[in-house]
Design a protein that fits this description.
The protein is an alpha/beta fold. The chain folds into 2 domains: 180 residues, 3-Layer(bba) Sandwich (FAD/NAD(P)-binding domain), CATH 3.50.50; 119 residues, FAD/NAD(P)-binding domain, CATH 3.50.50.60. The chain is built from 6 helices and 19 strands. The strands form 5 sheets. Strands 1, 2, 5, 6, 7, 8 and 19 form a 7-stranded mixed sheet that branches. It has a 5-stranded parallel sheet with strand order 10-17-11-12-13. Helix 1 runs parallel beside helix 2, helix 1 runs parallel beside helix 6 and helix 4 packs parallel to helix 5.
């Protein structure tokens, strides 16, 4: 990257949404530049094996899929920079993107910074991520076949994922810090009536324990303060997601949950600024849907840039 250079299209984020946008932008001869940040290939890179992305019937490691995304985008002329964006200015045109190495300007920007699952922030959580700790039942549910597992959380996502995981697991215990769920009534009814699902109320996790993989949870009851070490073979954590919007707060319109508001063209409230992937998707959070949104955003950005020339 050359400081103070100008680009037709700049993409912020190097996960599936950002790299799919880069591929489509490059094929439109926009020569896009991607600022990937410090987490290469986004959350997908933290998944050991992705088995639900079309075209890979045997599955593929998350980081390997990310590399293929990058290679394909670069083949058509996208420039991938492993650079952290410090600030964005959408009040001027061209837009200004400030990084550690300097500033560049752009006629169009695609926001693809993703969202991070909220963490429990307990010992063992980081160490066992990918080895029994997961934040995606759709991604990793298959590996729980005939296992006794635990789901942490009490909202809609936690119950949706718990119900999904009953397709594979022998038993699913929902651990919730309160004595009543926050999920909708229909989901709660379905979960309570499922013979594979049980509930551990008024309980929080203090530590995730194991050797090579997760083996137990150290928990305590918030009312009695009684501690227990309960065996488990996998832990799925669903205590919310936080979209990575700190760079754009105050400039880009967000919904009540903090996700970027977009229309059906992936456009934000600022003409020329588009968003794709989990930063604008509180519902699906899948590699394939993020990639699809990235492609759509790049097509819309291409059309926008063409309109400036007419």
């Amino acid at each position: 990257m050359e400081p103070n250079s100008h680009h037709q299209l700049v993409i912020i984020g190097g996960g599936p949404a950002g790299l799919a946008a880069a591929l489509y932008g490059a094929r439109a001869d926009l020569k896009p530049i991607v600022f990937s940040g410090m987490l290469l290939y986004g959350q997908a890179s933290q998944t050991d094996v992705i088995e639900n992305y079309p075209g890979f019937p045997e599955g593929i490691q998350g980081i390997e899929l990310g590399k293929l995304f990058e290679q394909q985008a670069a083949r058509f002329g996208a420039l991938i920079e492993y650079e952290q964006v410090l600030s964005l200015d959408f009040q001027v045109r061209p837009f200004v993107i400030n990084t550690y190495s300097g500033s560049v300007s752009a006629d169009a920007v695609i926001l693809a910074m993703g969202a991070d699952p909220n963490k429990l922030q307990v010992p063992g959580e980081v160490e066992f991520t990918g080895r029994g700790v997961s934040y995606c039942g759709t991604c990793d549910g298959f590996f729980t076949r005939n296992k006794d597992i635990h789901v942490i959380g009490g909202g809609d996502t936690a119950l949706e994922e718990a119900l999904f995981l009953t397709r594979f697991a022998r038993s699913v215990t929902v651990v919730h810090r309160r004595d009543a769920l926050r999920a909708g009534a229909i989901l709660e009814k379905r979960a309570r009536s499922n013979p594979k699902i049980s509930f551990l109320w008024n309980t929080v996790v203090d530590e995730i324990r194991g050797d090579e993989k997760v083996q137990s949870l150290l928990v305590h009851n918030v009312k009695t303060n009684e501690k227990s070490d309960i065996p488990t073979q996998a832990v799925f954590i669903f205590v919310g997601h936080s979209p990575n919007v700190s760079l754009i707060e105050g400039q880009i319109a967000l919904d009540k949950h903090g996700y970027v508001k977009i229309d059906d063209k992936m456009a934000t409230n600022i003409p020329g600024v588009f968003a794709a992937g989990e930063i604008a998707d509180p519902h699906y959070r899948q590699v394939i849907t993020s990639a699809g949104m990235g492609a759509a955003a790049a097509i819309s950005a291409t059309q926008y840039l063409e309109s400036l020339e007419s």
